Task: structure prediction
Amino acid sequence: MSDVKARQPNLAKVLLTDWFAHIWMIILIVAVLISAYAVIYYAWGNRQLNAEVQQLLEDKDKLDIDWRHMLLEHNALSEHSRIEQIAREKLNMVRPQGQQEKVIKQP
Result:
């Protein structure tokens, strides 16, 4: 029985010897795995950034539409006829006659 144990090689020693014999293969495998992980990581980050860009472009379009509506509303409210109508209806103002006008000259 002790004769059988003596002929069996140490498995850890055999594995380490084999790994050191093929060190370049192990280094290349590790490098391939690291580069594959890097590709996956940066592709995921790129997709995240593209999704964020699309959301920001949608927000920009909504803000542009709101700005146009506000501009139209501002123009409608600032027309002279609208101001004159509000002055007549709400403030009971009237346009002065020629003799009621006073001209002030600056020196």
